[in-house]
């Protein structure tokens, strides 16, 4: 879903950037191009790049401004109250790509789950399933995947407190996101 929106945003930015650049004087055209490129980069950072990668060692949360590697032995709880969130001792790590569904998406997912289970005519929401845990939603499917792998691969004898959770902050992304508007505002003054 996010990748389709990203492609649509890039196409719109290309058209709008070209139109503004063609209708402006050179200074305005430079600012328009810089701003369009910066917005395109923001789309890349916030819509295209985020991911949740699950493997035999743990889960890697590739959020827009940081990447967090949570090993199965360090994981102590998985929750979907507002978004899929992985808990380690003393910290919680929200997953950018697995938000809780909205009301309409939750109703659709609950209806699909109810229609798929002919043995129980009740909605999953009536049986106590959280909205974020509904199958067929981003957070529900991701949480089910993480919980399955965690249950199968975690060493329950390990001390979660002693296991480091490496966090990589993407300072280059932060710098570009901050510098883009500043450059768009000042570059025309220098030309």
Question: Any overview of this molecule?
Answer:
With 191 residues, the chain is of the alpha+beta class. The chain contains 5 helices and 7 strands; from the N terminus they run ααββββββααβα. A hairpin with a 2-residue loop joins strand 5 (83-88) and strand 6 (91-99). The mean pLDDT is 84. The chain crosses the membrane at residues 31-54.
Number of helices: 5
Terminal CA distance: 40 Å
The sequence of SSEs as H and E is HHEEEEEEHHEH
Count of discrete domains = 2
Uncertain runs are none
Mean pLDDT: 84
Alpha-carbon Rg, integer: 22 Å
- Tally of extended strands? 7
User: Which structural class matches the secondary elements?
Assistant: alpha+beta
What global shape is seen? flat
Short description:
The chain is α+β, with helices and mostly antiparallel strands and 191 residues long. Helix content is 49%, strand content 19%. The two termini are 40 Å apart.
Please give the structural blueprint:
Elements: H1 2-22, H2 26-48, E1 51-54, E2 58-62, E3 66-71, E4 77-79, E5 83-88, E6 91-99, H3 103-116, H4 138-153, E7 167-169, H5 171-190
Antiparallel strand pairs: 1-2, 2-3, 3-7, 4-5, 5-6
Name the descriptors:
191 residues, alpha+beta, three-stranded antiparallel beta sheet, 5 helices, 49% helix
């Amino acid at each position: 879903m996010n990748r389709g929106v990203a492609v649509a945003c890039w196409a719109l930015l290309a058209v709008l950037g070209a139109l503004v650049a063609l209708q402006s004087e050179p200074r305005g055209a430079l600012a328009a191009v810089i701003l369009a490129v910066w917005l395109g980069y923001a789309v890349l950072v916030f819509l295209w790049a985020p991911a949740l990668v699950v493997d035999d060692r743990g889960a890697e949360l590739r959020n827009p401004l940081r990447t967090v590697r949570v090993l199965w032995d360090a994981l102590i709880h998985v929750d979907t109250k507002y978004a899929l969130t992985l808990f380690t001792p003393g910290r919680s790590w929200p997953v950018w790509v697995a938000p809780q569904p909205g009301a309409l998406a939750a109703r659709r997912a609950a209806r699909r789950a109810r229609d798929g289970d002919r043995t129980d005519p009740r909605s999953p929401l009536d049986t106590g399933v959280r909205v974020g845990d509904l199958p067929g939603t981003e957070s529900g499917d991701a949480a089910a995947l993480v919980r399955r792998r965690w249950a199968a691969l975690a060493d329950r004898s390990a001390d979660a407190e002693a296991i480091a959770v490496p966090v990589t902050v993407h300072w280059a992304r932060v710098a570009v996101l901050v510098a883009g508007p500043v450059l768009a505002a000042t570059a025309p003054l220098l030309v």
